[in-house]
Amino acid sequence: MQQQSLSSFSELHKRKLETQIKNYVSKLNAPTEIKESMLYSLEAGGKRIRPMLLFASLAAFGEDTLKGMWTAAAIEMVHTYSLIHDDLPSMDNDDLRRGKPTNHKVFGEAFAILAGDALLTYSFQSIAETPDEFASADTKLSLIMELSKASGAEGMVGGQAADIKGEGKQLGIEDLEYIHVHKTGKLLECSVVSGAILANASQETIQTLSAFAYHLGLAFQIRDDILDLEGTEELIGKPVGSDESKNKSTYPSLLTMNGAKEALANHIRSAKEKLKETGLQTDLLEEITDLIANRDH
Ligand code: GRG
């Protein structure tokens, strides 16, 4: 079966997802301020990489991508909550996110915390509300289990905790990998694996797709570090590797810029090998992989 191009696939699915999210939050029987705070960050211009991975994963199995809408919205809600809390004064204390004032700058710290909490809890409700024609009770339970593990102490929260613990210390490559595999990678993996769960894939295929997502997650982060460093160097007008860019452990600071680029290429190659191993129709997943390797923001 010939699949459609990634740009038309993404455009269509992004539109459907954004409508789903807006309707979902708007219909909540809750104080207006909390709904506004949730929607502000949900609609602040995210790239929707995680939902697209889930839809592309379903497409690889030749499944109806609509099945994944409730889980895709759930994962985007968890991602959005993590960004709101990450920006708080007690964490990164950021004033801007995606070029706009951060949630706590607009709604205050208490509402930013509450909006994050509401998004996290709402995500599990969203999966549970997947119509029965698209997912059995067992499937929904597996999806909720997957998302809980990916977001909690064994996943994203664990990665964030390790990151905070490592602040100001010189980390080794293994520590750095632990942080990124958990902080960023687990939710990306959950997106790909959720598509496979909805498609009733075998354990073997799920494991191969998890391995794909592991390499994709690290590639995503290495690219992020490279972009950050290039941006910093441009801003401060200093050559790559200068002292100003060395106050944080990153892939370029541990491996040099060339080493980081090489590691990125290796992870992209391994990710694509894993996709081939599945024997599925993985064109869209492959295109997303290339986009992540080459992204400029
Ligand atoms: C507060 C529990 C808790 C966790 C925070 C994800 C995270 C953990 C923090 C975000 C910090 C950060 C910038 C991590 C680097 C990788 C990352 C997740 C980037 C943002 O993801 P994109 O590029 O974001 O998909 P958009 O804006 O497109 O949605």
Automatic annotation (TrEMBL):
Q: What EC number(s) does the entry state?
A: 2.5.1.10
InterPro entries annotated for this entry?
Answer: Isoprenoid_synthase_dom_sf (IPR008949), Polyprenyl_synt (IPR000092), Polyprenyl_synt_CS (IPR033749), Prenyl_diphosphate_synthase (IPR053378)
Q: What are the BP-aspect GO terms?
A: terpenoid biosynthetic process
Kindly state which keywords UniProt assigns to this record, in alphabetical order: Isoprene biosynthesis, Magnesium, Metal-binding, Transferase
A Pfam family annotated for this UniProt entry: polyprenyl_synt
Q: Which reaction does it catalyse?
A: isopentenyl diphosphate + (2E)-geranyl diphosphate = (2E,6E)-farnesyl diphosphate + diphosphate
| Record flagged with keyword Iron-sulfur | no
Cofactor(s) listed in the protein's UniProt record: Mg(2+)
The record ties this protein, via Gene3D superfamilies, to: Farnesyl Diphosphate Synthase (1.10.600.10)
Which SUPFAM superfamilies does the record match to this protein? Terpenoid synthases
Q: Which residues form a coiled coil?
A: none
Name the GO cellular-component terms: cytoplasm
Record's signal peptide: none
Transmembrane segment boundaries:
none
Domain of life from the UniProt record:
Bacteria
Give the Gene Ontology MF terms in alphabetical order. Answer: (2E,6E)-farnesyl diphosphate synthase activity; metal ion binding
Query: What family is this protein classified in?
Result: Belongs to the FPP/GGPP synthase family.
- The identity of this protein, by name, is Farnesyl diphosphate synthase
Which species expresses this protein natively? Sporosarcina globispora
